[in-house]
Amino acid sequence: MNHHTLARPTQVADRVSAPMFLRIGVVMRLTGLSRSTIYRMMAQHSFPQPVRLSRRLIAWRGSEMDQWSEGRPNVTH
After folding, report:
1. Which of 4, 12, 28, 41 could link 47 by a cystine bridge, Cβ 3.0 to 4.6 Å?
2. How confident is the model at residue 71 (pLDDT cuts 50, 70, 90)?
């Protein structure tokens, strides 16, 4: 194998950005919200909806969580 063959997969991987999916535990830690609060807010359409990754696995898109977080009001004291 030459140098170009070895470098190519890394270069292709660097150009392709895969979506990041976050499981409920990570979402809870990032937001500081409890599981029940997250599901209540989802029912009220005030929290991002998860995506189904398999029959028993759901997760939230990291990009949607970033957008939701940026839209939250800042606290001033």
Report:
1. 41
2. very high
Domain boundaries in the chain?
19-70
pLDDT tens digits, residue range 3-50? Answer: 444 444 555 455 555 569 999 999 999 999 999 999 999 999 999 999
Residue 73's beta-bridge partner residues?
none
For 50, other C-beta atoms within 10 Å of its C-beta total 20
- Using alpha carbons, select from 44, 45, 42, 53 the residue that is nearest to residue 20: 53
What are the Cα distances from residue 8, in Å, to 11, 16, 17, 18, 19? 5, 13, 16, 18, 21
Q: Which two tokens stand for residue 33?
A: 């919200």
